[in-house]
Inverse folding.
């Protein structure tokens, strides 16, 4: 195929706009989504559980397999006098591709949590 035909027909321009748009979308998802997820999870969980819920770091990787990692999740006691968290998780990992594709057997576990700790007081 002649390169002049590609330039004149606009296929090259459309392809470059599409690739640039995808790169921009992935970059925005990488930078903005963790901030939005952290704020929304903290506020909604605090509202639903009637206890202060705090999140440490939220990491999102849109280009690999839609991986979402939430670190240092802690739920405070109902009584503010207690300083330690009633429930905490060190790291929670979700693989978005394997969660969304339920067509076949899953090789990698889509959810993984580590460092869970709970305190029950009477």
């Amino acid at each position: 195929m002649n390169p002049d035909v590609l330039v004149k027909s606009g296929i090259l321009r459309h392809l470059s706009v599409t690739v640039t748009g995808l790169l921009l979308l992935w970059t925005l998802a990488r930078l903005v989504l963790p901030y939005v997820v952290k704020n929304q999870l903290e506020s909604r969980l605090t509202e639903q559980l009637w206890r202060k819920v705090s999140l440490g770091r939220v990491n999102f990787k849109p280009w690999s397999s839609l991986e979402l990692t939430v670190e240092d999740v802690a739920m405070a006691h109902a009584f503010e006098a207690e300083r330690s968290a009633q429930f905490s998780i060190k790291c929670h990992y979700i693989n978005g591709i394997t969660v969304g594709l339920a067509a076949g057997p899953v090789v990698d576990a889509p959810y993984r949590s580590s460092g869970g700790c709970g305190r029950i007081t009477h």
User: Anything to note?
Assistant: The beta strands are 53-54, 58-61, 67-75, 87-95, 111-114, 117-118.
